[in-house]
Amino acid sequence: ETEVYVQMCRRWREIPKPMIAQVHGACIAGGLMLAWVCDFIVASDDAFFSDPVVKMGIPGVEYFAHAFVLGPRRAKEILYTGRRFTAADALDWGMLNHVVPRDDLQAKVDGIAAEIAEMPAFGLTLAKKVINSNEDQMGLQTSLDTAFGWHMFAHSANAEPDDSDSFSASLGGMDARSMRDSANTGSTGQKKD
Fold it and tell me: What domains lie within the chain, and their CATH numbers?
């Protein structure tokens, strides 16, 4: 998870060229991570967003930028409730640059890209480095490291659940013990040797 999720997102965030996320429909969990590392996020009015992984006993997706892109109160709201939020919500909360009708999405993104292309490439690279550095100085990288540590702790804690029914139920029965037991009994319910 460190390499495939967190480090990949960090590398994509640091690509010197400006990146635009073009979002329509569902943008859930991993989709959020991919969008959040981009410099612009443009969404269609039918887009919706969610990070439901708290339901799996984990604090959130691996690239945990929630408080930075949503603000602490909204981050808590979407994580604590598991609810999805609309493109209009995301725009209002400052997560998106623009929301447009779906039929206009490609044209909007192309228009932004054309404007960016008129700017000096070296200046764009430096501007991106400075803004990313500002976020890092505000604690983004430290926050990501801390959240990922808790994410991995949650995996460990979930791997050896207690005997309470509520714990297994909260994970939908998909904890390490239930997976081990189903692997040992097979589909017949008889214990394998």
Answer: 2-150 (3.90.226.10)
